[in-house]
Amino acid sequence: MWVxxxxxLTATQFAADRADVVARARAAGVEQMLLTGxxxxxxxxxxxxxxxxxxxxxxxxxxxxxxxxxxxSDAALRALAAHPRARAIGECGLDFNRNxxxxxxxxxxxxxxxxxxxxxxxxxxLHCRDAHERFLALLQPHLNRLPAAVLHCFTGDQAELRTxxxxxLYIGITxxxxxxxxxxxLLALLPVIPLDRLLLxxxxxxxxxxxxxxxxxxxxxxxxxxxxxxxxxxxxxxxxLDELAQHTRAxxxxxxxxx
Length: 259
Description:
Layout: E1 2-7, H1 18-27, E2 30-35, H2 40-53, E3 56-59, H3 73-81, E4 86-95, H4 103-120, E5 124-129, H5 132-139, E6 149-151, H6 158-166, E7 170-173, H7 184-189, E8 198-200, H8 226-237, H9 241-256
Parallel strand pairs: 1-2, 2-3, 3-4, 4-5, 5-6, 6-7, 7-8
Helix pairs in contact: 2-3, 3-4
C-alpha cells in the first residue's frame, strides 16, 4: 500500500534489529522502501541491505560528508550506481544550516554528483537546508537532462515550495508535519503540492512524529510509522488514504523505477 522513499536503515540505531524493523514496516502496509545512502561506504552498505531485504537504495554523498569527496569518488559512485538496486544518486545537495562540510566543498560534491546523475540518466535524491537559492542555481542547468529530481524532507516556506514545483521537482514529506513546534507551516502548505508530485517518507530513525500516542519508548522513528504520517497528509489534503496511497506509490514507482 505504501512506499517509504527515505529510510536510513544503515543507521546504528537499527543495528540490533534491522530484520524486525523491515518486518514491522511490511506488516503496517509499507510494502517497499528506498534506503538512503549518505556517503560512499554507507551507500555500499545500503545496497547490501537492499539486496538482503529485497528493497532499493540511493547512492551518494550527503553535504555533511562533502569534505570526503576525492578525485576517485566519481568513479566509485558510478560503480555503486551500476548496482541493479541503486535507483537514484543522493542524498546530495547543500546544507548551509550546519555546515559540517565547508560550503565550497558541498558545492563541489553536489555538482559532481549532478554530473554523474545526468551521465547515467539517474534521478536525484536531494537535500537542501538554508541554501535554497544556491541549491537551485547549481541544480537548474541539469534539470532538463535528469529523469526526475526529488527534494527529500522538504521543510521550506511557500515561496520555496512553489519555486521547486515550478522547476518540476517532486516533494518528499516526512513526520516534520507532525511537529507542533516547527511543522505547522508546512502542514498548512500541503494542499499546494499536486498529488502527482508528492512522495512520503519517514527519514527513520530520525524525525519521529511527535504526535504519536503512545510515543515509542525508544524515541526512534521507523518505516512502520509511515501510515501515521500519511493519515495527517490525507486529512489536510482532503483525500482518502486509498487515494493518497495510490498516487504516492505510483509517483515512487515512476520516479525510481520500483517494481
